[in-house]
Amino acid sequence: RIQAKESDCRNNHNHHISKALVESANQIIGLEDLNLTGMTKRAAPKKNEDGKGYTRNRARAKSGLNRSLLGVALGQLATYIAYKARKVGKIAISELNPMNSSKECACCGSLNTERPDQATFICLSCGNRDNADSNAAKVLKKRLIHYIKENTFAKSKTRKSIVKRKKNWLTEPTPV
Questions:
Q1: Quick check: 25 and 85 in contact, CB under 8 A?
Q2: What's the distance, CA 65 to chain centroid?
Q3: If you ran DSSP here, which 8-state letter would residue 165 be given?
Q4: What does the alpha-carbon distance between residue 57 and residue 79 come to, in Å, rounded to a whole number?
Q5: Longest C-alpha distance within the chain, in Å?
Q6: DSSP state for residue 118 in the 8-state scheme
Q7: DSSP-derived secondary structure letter, 140
Q8: Residue 57 neighbours by CB under 8 Å, 6+ apart
Q9: What are the distances in angstroms from CA 19 to CA 14, 24, 45, 93, 148?
Q10: What's the rounded Cα separation, in Å, for the pair 36 and 30?
Q11: What is the DSSP string of 34-101?
């Protein structure tokens, strides 16, 4: 009963967030292509160097992180954004590569960066100082623009149509 109520609240919350995002967005919405199954995998046990027993792998902490990641229902949110964007004539692209988006500089593209704390981003190449989340959003925006310029999202796979023809459907008229 409690889990059903939590699920309903999460569902309602995702509907509200997706509606607000779609309404405030321009024509195209870019989402990271998150590998949720890979992110929520179980922590692998590690054997000791001597081969006897196991070292601590922080499996409890990982299971707590997995629970919180799955509890937010990020996949459901992406699905809601996609269908609501389609409904109002906008495009939601959820194929942006998130790799190094928090480490890459939005100004110069360098990975020579520093994060003195969780919120601060400093580029050692060009001196750019920014909020880390804001910088990552700018990097993803650049990737979205590059993705659109390549026209990879416009090229849909064409289906091969199979035409069945009857043999000899057109016969030569016989001379009389």
A1: yes
A2: 18
A3: -
A4: 33
A5: 98
A6: S
A7: H
A8: 43, 44, 45, 46
A9: 8, 9, 42, 16, 23
A10: 17
A11: --HHHHTPPPPPEE-TTSSSEE---HHHHHHHHHHHHHHTHHHHHHHHHHHHHHTT-EEEEEE--TTT
Predicted pLDDT at 172: 53
- 8-state DSSP, 150: T
pLDDT at res. 104: 93
Residues in the chain: 176
Tokens 């390549």 locate to 150
**Helix (H/G/I), strand (E/B), else coil: 130:** strand
Dihedral class, residue 104 (left if φ above 0, else alpha if ψ from -120 to 50, else beta): beta
Averages of pLDDT over runs of 10 residues in the chain (176 residues) are: 89 94 90 81 83 81 81 86 92 85 92 91 93 93 89 53 50 53
